[in-house]
Fold this sequence. Notes:
single chain; alpha/beta; five-stranded parallel sheet; three-stranded mixed sheet; 6 helices; 45% helix; 22% strand; globular
Amino acid sequence: MKYKVLLVDDETIYLQYLSRIxxxxxxxxxxxGYAKDGEEALSLIREWHPDIVFMDISMSRMxxxxxxxxxxxxxxxxxxxxxxxxxxFSFAHQAIKLxxxxxxxxxxxKEELKEALGKCIKDIDESKKNKHxxxxxxxxxxxxxxxxxxxxxxxxxxxxxxxxxxxxIVSGVITAAVRGRCxxxxxxxxxx
Length: 192
């Protein structure tokens, strides 16, 4: 899996530095965009849905912390790593309140960047794994509680899903709610 990364800083030279300091591909990352301020970052986040955002605090129009607050108000699962040259507790404190994933003090080196990125990738992977396990548990509980009502998310091919449903038809009427980009209700009745 490739992790999409957005780089946000009002200094072009720093954006160039960030894009070249490490081999992003080696860490399964690709830079999906660059932004010069918080407003532009929010627009790109809505468009590209990056997994990780490296964001400066001090920028024009909308600073990094204001952008983090706007991101927190959405259902977006983007992880934000704040970068700043200001070693002030008030910034760190506010970042913690906004659920910022990490906080890097400029200038940071290649190893600090890789460490923050590695922790972030591990967190994303664990979160996806936990989300998948929660979905499986909910599905199992729903099937055990009401075998006639089966809610599932089509993760594989249609044949795999149909095979799964056919095995469940013997228990009676099945209603499957397919959740994804669109929701479809399908009813299957047992032939008598």
